[in-house]
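Worked problem 6 (solution included).
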Amino acid sequence: MEIKGRIMSSLKYTQQSELYSRISVIAVLAIIIAMTCNDSIAAGVTRTLSTASLAAGEVLEVTLTIDVDPQHTTYGVDDSYPVGWAIESFCSESPYGHVILVATTGASDTTCTYQLRAPGIPGIYYFSGTYNFGEGDDQIIDGDNTVVVTADTTIPPSVLGTIPLNDITNIIPPDEIRVIFNKEMNRSVTESAWSITPEVEGTLRWENNILIYEPSNALSLGTEYTVRISATAQDTSGKLLDGNINGVSEGSPSDDYIFRFRIMDKPDEARVRRYFNKPIVRYDEALEVLLVIDLPVGVRYYIIEDNRPLYPSSRGWTVLAGEANSIGVIKLVELFTLPGTHYYRYTVKPPESNGVYKFSGHYILDYFLDSGDIGGQSEVIVVGAPEIGDLSVSMTYNPSEVLINSNLIYTITVTNNGPGTANGVAMTFNMNQAGNVINMEPSQGSCAYLDGIVTCYLDTLESGETATISIIARPNMEGSIRSTASVTSEMIDTITDNNTVTQPITVYPVFKANKAVTAPVIDGDLSEYEGVDAVTLSPLSGGNTVTVRTL
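Solution. The predicted structure is:
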């Protein structure tokens, strides 16, 4: 809606100026209602004043009558009463200067009656207000909209009302404290009668018959403040303050006017908390995220930014429902929200990669009145996604010169080059019927030998880990033989050329020759024999038979 765009574009300005004077309350209500309502046409809202004229300091009764057609289910009403009037009673807790009524479901005909005390300055005062049934432009409240206040010079000055209200608790630290008198006051004398406990540095100023105190620093959280206007305060005609409003100036302490208010405590936990509908989610399922927002009395707006994890951005979390920008931030900006607990839900799809993911976020309440990291839950586990990575196998053998029917040791190394985790790793080794395996020893898992093939089950290899298998075999063929090792796993392998390795080996025959030996035979001696180039004497303790092989 066009009105929503105006609200959002006004936010930057309102962060530097008075938010109340720049944003239409009913516009925000219309946005909220429009998201939940059916198409409807407003039946009407009418304002009725109990009198058209009253004296300064008297009470005016205002009645709002809301007529709802049967098909209507929602409405929003904002009635604005004149500046300087003090609220005596209201049918809906609202910001100063407004009476706000909201029905998001099951709307029906209703009336709202509230009372105001007239200011001390005579004149004509005007009411204004709008309503909206969820669609279209705001409509003007019909009925009475003006009232005349007449002067009453016979009564002493008194206090019509205060901001904050007397005895209110759990409020945000106000930017200013207002005392509304029923008459024009002697300003210097009344300022001298002002005090606040605990003492707070600040300045006093006036707007007509309203005394305004502006603290130099923010009032302290968790503190109760007491404001006193002593009975020495007087109006411009010299009449002393009637603090207890009994029509007679009686002096201190009976006519001292006292009111109290308590600033909200610093919360034990974050005012904005995040919860997941499940702590473990499959990669192909949706995850629902709930933001719980606790607002104290008087908060005018909040900003929340919740960041979904990025892993990396090309394979990150996807927002399925909820407002997010291109870098994965859920950003909420709400104006003139009522106190209490509010909820916001959004839905995301996990990436196709298993692991533990952490959400992060931050919130700001009302000009940094309260700010901090989003509390509640932050970590969610993604499971079920196929791992992606590179598994490789390599093979060496020993000794370098192999005799038929002699021991030949293969060392096979399986490596997970990452980035994924390889589960269900298996290695197979085959001598292609060129020998027999007599022993197998893996660094992890187990091995089996069947029908000339060695199969080793190596379980899991994390990224960067290796496993080795030592195989002792005896070749039974002379000449060139080829042994093959292959590796597989449940991981999606992005490079398959290194999953198999083939090792060629030359196997030499064994020769026997007889010759009389006249001297002791020493291991490693070389001698010449008929029909061969050279021989290596095998270990003998003595005798006349040696085994030779061709070098």
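Discussion: DSSP finds four helices and 47 strands in the chain.
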